[in-house]
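Input record (Table S2, row 413):
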Amino acid sequence: MQINYDFLDKYTFKSKDITLANHVIMAPTTLKASLSDGSVSDNELNYYRLRAQGPAMIITEAAYVNDLGRGWEGGISAADDDKIPGLRRLARTIQSGGAKAILQIFAAGRQTTTTILRGQQPVSASSQAYPHGDHEMPRALTHSEISQTISDFAQATKRAILAGFDGVELHGANLYLMQQFFSSDSNRRDDIWGGTAEKRQRFGLAITAKVAQTIEKYADKPFLLGYRQSPEEPMTPGITLDQSLTFAEKLTALSVDYLHLSLNNAFQTPFRDKTDTKKVIDYYRAILPPDYPLIIAGLLKKPEQVEALLDVGGEGTFAALGRELIVEPNWVAKVKNNDETAIRYALSPSDFELLAVPKTLENWLLTRFRNGLPITTDSEFNPKQPWQYYKHVMIKAAKPIDPTQLMTLKKRP
Ligand SMILES: Cc1cc2nc3c(=O)[nH]c(=O)nc-3n(C[C@H](O)[C@H](O)[C@H](O)COP(=O)(O)O)c2cc1C
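Output record (flavin mononucleotide complex):
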């Protein structure tokens, strides 16, 4: 029986003449596979090419806007004009499958190390280390460095425009620099950039306004501006849902075309107040203009969950799939073709090459993300001894993968 999911319907933005083919978005997923100078690599192009046929829009992994913004080895750079040709290949690769290409741009702030910054100390709003675990002490950015960083976001946007992207997403989430300015944990300043909740919003708002101006000036086709938020922080002091909602109202009053929430679970209730039973998405819908485009990420895997999200969020709600699109590049095609039983929800280590997962991402998935990702053990892989597996893996030169190969793979039991 063919199910007519609403999430397969088209959507046209009211703010810009851009139509999305459906309501499924590929969530930004760092591959750590760029060349050492931040240029886009063939491994990255292969990964994106394989996933470009289904989702309406692909948001790339976070690209750093300046050298101090680099968050990890193998990150994509949008920090220099010489990166434009590689970024152009990335945009074209994504668009070749019909998806809109959005470049996520960021600066890591204190979420990096002196080693990754080649000897430079990490920077943040204040000299305040991340409170949990063993993290380096950052230094506070000076006023002129803050102004420069705001221009760096604008310059990165100009490069995304010249490279042919369909938009940029400002990464104001996941504890990176934009969030660090907004948070009363990391921002202890008492100048114009901190001291009150309103002043802590200023950095994000200034970047948004400058990026919007850049789009106005340089884009010769409709070009989206999105903003990603983490609505709450676990630490005290830290970002509260109320603060994020007030901030979201201001952002959407500027030229922000969509808001993107980075959640652990798309249907979650606030985690700072465990007694609150109202969903975070309902709080956002209550303050946003009717039908305002709202992307939600967090553990969405099955078609019925995506449909339920649209039921909860209403018109203008989009589902961002992260880990599920690593495992199943043909998710949208299988839903459209009424082939849902063939959707894969678990990863086998022997499939990494076929899935075009670069070694760097594979390594990360098998260690840091091991708990959040179902991995079958139908190969020589033993999760207790991952190094044994690596000994047997042949590192092959990157080669393009035929997406149709994957369609023939059967779902694992
Ligand atoms: C390997 C990996 C890399 C990620 N890289 C980014 C990133 O570059 N930018 C970002 O905003 N979120 C990043 N995320 C978070 C995802 O976009 C998403 O919010 C998160 O995985 C939850 O969605 P999921 O449950 O569908 O995976 C990453 C997640 C994973 C698993």
